[in-house]
């Protein structure tokens, strides 16, 4: 049986002695009783000794029970006391008890004149402490959960950075190695065609065409990995270029409208990449899922935010798609947005298309 440390804040010495006796007699209850005669003394002992719980008389010479609760919370630097407090009130003070509970007392007992409450005190304290243990465990679990969420988010951010970096590196490598080889092959074939003069082998012409196709494929793969316009010309030309690419490749009408106010903004590398990847995912979704005939990309500035909208006139995203755990594309957009303290809204109306709106703060608000 573990010993419970109870602080009683009570100016009436008779009541204190009665309490001590009641605890000593309670079966299965072992308690170290700390005693304070005034509110101030109670606060001092509470902070110094950190008892497991406090029995608090409502009427104290210097403070009321409610004032004691407020001071205790303030001294602990918390909105409500973290040490569980049981209020002891007079028989006529139900409203006081209710108010005390509202201000953070965990329980109350009415002191009846013939002292019957004393028989129930030990049991009530046991209950209070059991409850407190549950609260502590819950808070601990929440702390662990918050911490692991934070770590996951940091990991995701790190992976994202790694991925961008790796993409750039792979694009570079393909460009230098494979691109160089194919250009070489094509040059050889051209020379062979030239040498063979008038009656050149049709196979050679086919080979030349294949080489050209391969060169174009390589170029496309490279720009998909990480468009160099993004690094060389910046986010706005990159978005315009990408909208054009989408139009060419998919046959969708795809416009891009960036207001002069937005155009004048210079975004850092992280925000540029983020904006580009969100626009890319959104337009890819339009092409893959929307059955739309038109997509519009709009960028504007609104105060300290840059606002990106991607609208389509397709079938409209279903709310199920928005919460689907397998929606990694949408998930990634939300995660990127959260990391930069932005807001992302995606909504669809059946048959009337889908709108995605991203608000991205220009300043770092995550600290
Ligand atoms: N523009 C859109 N129009 C209609 N449906 C969409 C649109 N964008 C997304 N969706 C729906 O939301 C789902 C989740 O999208 P996403 O997370 O990007 O996953 P994925 O593209 O890999 O299927 C899609 O499978 C699709 O059903
Ligand atoms: Mg997708």
UniProtKB/TrEMBL annotation:
InterPro entries: CheY-like_superfamily, HATPase_C_sf, HATPase_dom, His_kinase_dom, Sensor_HK_TwoCompSys, Sig_transdc_His_kin_sub3_dim/P, Sig_transdc_resp-reg_receiver
Ranges for domain Response regulatory: 5-126
Coiled coil region boundaries: 131-168
Domain Histidine kinase: 169-364
SMART domains: HATPase_c, REC
Name of protein: Response regulator
4-aspartylphosphate PTM positions: 57
A cellular component term, taken from the record's GO annotations: membrane
Keywords, alphabetical: Coiled coil, Kinase, Phosphoprotein, Transferase, Two-component regulatory system
A molecular function GO annotation: phosphorelay sensor kinase activity
